[in-house]
Amino acid sequence: MGVGKVARKALLAVLITALFMGLIGAGVSASSPEMVEVIVAFDHEPGPAEEALIAEVGGEVKHSLRLIRTVAARIPAAALQRLRQNPGVVGIEEDSDVFSADIELDNSWGVNRIAAGVMHDAGNKGTGVKIAVIDSGIDYNHPDLAANYAGGYDFVNDDDDPMDDNGHGTHVAGVIAAIDDDVGVVGVAPEVRLYALKVLNATGRGRASDVIAAVEWCIANGIQITNNSYGRYTDPGPVYKAAFDKAYAAGILNIASAGNRGNALGFGDTVSYPATLDSVVAVAAVDTNDIRPSWSGAGPDIEVAAPGVRINSTLPGGGYGVKSGTSMAAPHVAGLAALIIAGGIADSNGNGNINDEVRERLTTTAADVGTVGRDALYGYGIARAGEAAPVLVAPTPSAPGDVPEVPPDSGGTINEAPVTTDLLPF
After folding, report:
1. pTM score > 0.85 for this model?
2. Catalytic residues
């Protein structure tokens, strides 16, 4: 074989080897870039072209959130600058974590503390009002919840089966809507239409983009009230705020837990997002003596307070148990809002939106505690159904000044052991 042929074969071998190694290197590089979860905001409604843009930089689209002109996606960190340079992109923010808001304690008391039982006896059970529990899902087979369950969506797994694999959402749902059947527990509004929007996974964690997608779902499906018993302590960004603002403008009353990072003296502003937003009602917790527990969030955004210590409610699998936290306080107020709506309340602004009127009813009828007037610990005071909610049928007469007390439900199986749900950082 001539020297020329040998040289050519050697060169060819080197080239093939180099090409092969290059392909291997390219494969390793393509499979191992640092990926980040982001929300990309556009100056127009996103569609196929915007989803193609995400794919072009090596990303994967999670949600196209047309309500607020954004796309939630997972993209290579190295592609962020390229996206920012696109003329249609107006902002990129982190798709931040959100967490459930319970504290583990061990006892139970009832919905009747806010005198919801008085409204039930008067014929007002929140019939037909549509409430979405944005949480870890709901055990829709629970005997105390199945009759009121009306549907929902799982944004964690992207399917239409929002079954609860954590327990938090089921407990929250029971406070709102457990049926009035003399077994187990009863909810504040035991005849509402209950929707489960799963944004928290089995560990009680979720993403801001899933919350935004759930809020968008609520607008599209005519939800009247959302309960948001989760949060975080750093600002998730303007897109997050815009979602709740649009929901409020669309006639949805958003109720949220104030968070559990308070302190004994109530110093500082310790209210979590989304409760801090103007378009959301922030709810603090009180105990059986109407006293704020040290962990309840405090600050100028607190609007009302409600029972949140040792609350007995529904658990996945058909049982019952106790949890504490502002997560348990918020659904008391969400249920009360449903009673106000079901009882009938006029649209005094003439704009077809009764959110302001319901909100005013909640605050003006609250039992003032703490400092006179609105304060950072209790807001306007403790929510009271007997004062706030219109009745559908005249109630049974009682002694002047007497507020009827209805004994807590004693039927069903009560789990006396603490229900373990970690307080996760926001």
Report:
1. no
2. 135, 168, 327
